[in-house]
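Purpose: get a first structural picture of the assembly so the mutagenesis plan has something to point at.
Setup: two entries, given in the order below. No constraints added.
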Amino acid sequence: MLDIEHVTKVFFPGTINEKVALTDINLHVETGDVICVIGSNGSGKSTLFNMIAGTFPVTSGKIVLDGKDITHDAEYKRAFKIGRIFQDPTKGTSANMSIQDNMTLAFTKGMKGIRFSLTQKKKELFRELLKQIGLEDRLEDNVGLLSGGQRQALTLLMSTLSHPSLLLLDEHTAALDPNNAEIVMDLTKEYIERDKLTAMMVTHNMQFAIDYGNRLIMMDEGRIILDIKGEEKKNLTVQALIEKFRSLRNKDFTSDEGLLTD
Amino acid sequence: MIEGIFVEGLIFSIMVLGVLISYRILDLADLTCDSSFATGAAVVAISIYSGVSTGLSLVLAFLVGLLCGFVTATIHNKLRIPGLLASILTMTMLYSVNLRILGNKANLPLMGKPTLYRSFPDVFAFLSSSALASLLGTLLIVLFVKVLMDLFFRSDLGISIGALGGNEQVVISLGMNPATLKLIGLGLSNGLIALSGGLLAQYQGFADVNLGQGMVVQGLAAVMIGEFLFSSNRISLITLRAIFGGIIYKALMFFGRKYGYLVGITTNDFKLLTGVLVIVSLAVAMTRSKAADAGAKKKALTKVARGEGNA
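Result (structure tokens, whole complex):
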């Protein structure tokens, strides 16, 4: 459902600051795939997500989603099919508005008309949905009053409202305390399973990447160096993964967080 | 006399509502209003001069103001320059346009021409004085504008514009083009500002190209005065306090004119004082939020001390 063909991204081309962030990325994502993306800082994980979501244009290459070439579509157009959750919990919701207003906007994607869709019936529906994240009594509270974990849970709920084809999770629990991170991650798993979502998730936790999802991608210096799925992934261990990395790249895996497994 | 302050304040408050949209709701500093205010006045004056009805001339002023906002938004969106610079460009260009609208004259008196304020005493004949009639007429217009604005910002489109001001990424993630929302927001903002200018031209009986000078800062001062009155996230109360802010600002200026000489203040000092008012408001608002943070911290610490954990 998602095809990335020969995508390359160069920042500041032709200047002294020129930086090649992605080199000839090829990736085919099947419907229903849940892919964990790992790699040290600066390996190109976030750039890859930015290319898929359309935050910046690609330097060369092609991105096809559901059979449609979206390479030159603006970010807001791609957002109809792609849900994205950032590491920063404040990015996914509007702080100076109430929870119900945020949910009203998320209910249908795209430009809104001069309609009043927040009816009593809708409020009841929202209340019911918010029970999943324990915010059912705070419909009229400003989102700015919520904790980071609550905001991230709300963002997750909001992005599943519109049934995206692809969900991009960019270390979406990394800024939360362990307790909240677990709650949000459990919720993420629940939604992915319930709605049979196709998802890509950046994580720093190697053990988690091995345990969760049907596919694991490792990136380094702007390339996808490992793509493990199926049976092979089930039998994977952190040690084996590090060994693989070492033999492929002739260097040690440098992300300390990656090794901290809990 | 006292009616005069209220009429001036109410007319001004429509302008404040416009500044509220750009500055607070969209979070975009828009200087277009320094000229679009005069544009509204010029459009109304020339329309009435050409025999257009007083009511229709206000609608025209609103529409022309809308266009002014569109110009700023388009420069900002297409050339990807900051809204502030885009609006300075529009403001500067509009000055020449305003002179053209007024037929290459700096001002246009409406002597002997019909205006709303000349017809209010007949429309509200049951009132004892023409000043009261003017007040009632203005009040009805402001209420009409306020109610429409409240309704708009409670609609899905209005909420989207509010979300844009708080967080542009959210709007993009929800599949909306932020450029379109800015276009609509800045258009409405300047539409209201031009409407206010047009109404003022009818009230004082002339239009002048320099009418809008320093409007942004005055509008900001009024918005901030309003915010000291009460805090709320309901749009109806936010617009209400902006209107109150506008009236209070005009009242302050009135008393400054009247009693200022006692402390040696003249009207020449008003721009300085308005600027100082905005700075003081900002400083007070900052101290307040710091105090609130300190309060929250203290509360959290006592909670931890009592062993309730970091819930």
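Strands of chain B lie at 107-109, 206-208.
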